Amino acid sequence: MANIIRLKRSATASAVPSSGSLVAGELAVNTADGKLYLKKDDTSVVQIGPTLIAGRDITLVPSGNTITINSSVGLEQTFLFMGA
Q1: How far apart are CA 48 and CA 2, in angstroms?
Q2: Is 25 left (phi over 0), alpha (psi -120 to 50) or beta?
Q3: What's the rounded Cα separation, in Å, for the pair 13 and 24?
Q4: Is the full-model pTM beyond 0.85?
Q5: 50: Cβ–Cβ under 8 A, 6 or more apart, which residues?
Q6: 31 lies in which domain range?
Q7: Each residue of 44-56: pLDDT tens digit?
Q8: In a domain, 2, yes or no
Q9: What is the tally of structural domains in the chain?
Q10: Where would a tag sit more exposed on the chain, N or C end, judged by fewer CB atoms within 10 A?
């Protein structure tokens, strides 16, 4: 069975998703701030973007059903999101 990555988006600066708006394992991206969030099994919502490389600038570039993560140290990773 294929893994499904769930993604929600917000273009509102400083918006952080609430625990009630996500299910465990669901991702949310804030395109205004370039931040990525994940709801954990314990129901907490954590920001995961800046922790990828401590002390480095991280930017998220959404485009259609892909998102590219770039960093100031040259790391670039593109993820493809597919619906259920």
Answers
A1: 23
A2: left
A3: 23
A4: no
A5: 35, 58
A6: 7-80
A7: 998 885 444 455 5
A8: no
A9: 1
A10: N
